[in-house]
From TrEMBL:
Pfam family, one: FCD
Domain of life per record: Bacteria
This protein's name: HTH-type transcriptional regulator LutR
Keywords associated with the record: DNA-binding, Transcription, Transcription regulation
GN (gene name): lutR_3
Domain HTH gntR-type: 9-77
Entry keyword Acetylation: no
Source organism (scientific name): Gimesia algae
InterPro entries, alphabetized: GntR_C (IPR011711), TF_FadR/GntR_C (IPR008920), Tscrpt_reg_HTH_GntR (IPR000524), WH-like_DNA-bd_sf (IPR036388), WH_DNA-bd_sf (IPR036390)
Xref: SMART domains: FCD (SM00895), HTH_GNTR (SM00345)
A molecular function (GO) term: DNA binding
Length: 231
């Protein structure tokens, strides 16, 4: 029984990959009809169980959608949704949290040049205003407000890239951003450093100064990464 189950799982994985390759090679558009499960089993010479398992794998990642009385419909997977669904399981391990820290670092470092190139003057001004609002929240020790303003600051920064995928990363990582403030403690030195880093970063982006902006983002991210390593 065990050997049979393992064999079916292997067949299902192989079939799922063959289907994925076929959809890609035939350039089937979002919403296109693929075939029914029974047709799938017949065409690929597998059991209905194997076909069903393969389809389940592809529906789980959003590549196929099953519709009653119609069959299987091709869908375009949303990479952000897939990451968002997988994130909750990445908060139990320090190593995984560290990986997410590095993901944030890479995304935001790469976003700086794009934000400078594509961001409007109005967005640059708004970024400076958010940095000032964060400064007020820090100096009045409003922890929830600090988190809210910082998330808004970094969300805007990613929106300024003009990339839907990059901007969407903020939505995916929002819980991870908020987790920083669960550990945040009111400390005058730390608070003033955060104020300076955000205001200087906003000013550098407003001045369209890539080198200065990258330096500030690197400094801000490095301090944050080091903090995560020592907690």
């Amino acid at each position: 029984m065990s050997a049979e189950i393992n064999y079916q799982i292997t067949q299902s994985d192989e079939l799922a990959e063959r289907i994925r390759q076929r959809i890609q090679s035939e350039r089937l558009a979002d919403g296109a009809f693929f075939m029914t499960e029974s047709d799938l089993a017949e065409e690929y010479h597998v059991s209905r169980t194997v076909a069903r398992e393969a389809v389940s794998r592809l529906t789980a990642i959003g590549l196929l959608e099953g519709r009653k009385r119609i069959g299987l419909i091709v869908r375009r997977p949303d990479p952000l949704r897939l990451l968002q669904l997988g994130l909750p399981s990445l908060f139990d391990s320090e190593q995984d949290v560290s990986e997410l820290s590095m993901l944030r670092y890479v995304v935001e470092m790469g976003a700086v040049d794009l934000a400078i190139r594509n961001g409007s003057d109005e967005q640059c001004q708004q970024l400076c205003e958010l940095a000032d609002e964060m400064a007020l929240a820090i100096r009045s020790d409003q922890t929830e407000k600090i988190a809210e303003r910082d998330i808004a600051f970094h969300s805007l920064l990613l929106q300024m890239t003009s990339s839907t995928l990059i901007a969407g990363m903020q939505r995916v990582l929002v819980n991870f951003f908020q987790s920083v403030y669960q550990e945040y403690q009111s400390d005058e030195t730390t608070g003033e450093r955060m104020i300076w880093e955000h205001q200087e970063l906003a000013a550098a982006i407003q001045d369209r100064d890539s080198n200065r902006a990258r330096t500030m983002m690197q400094m801000q991210s490095r301090n944050w990464l080091n903090q995560k390593k020592t907690t």
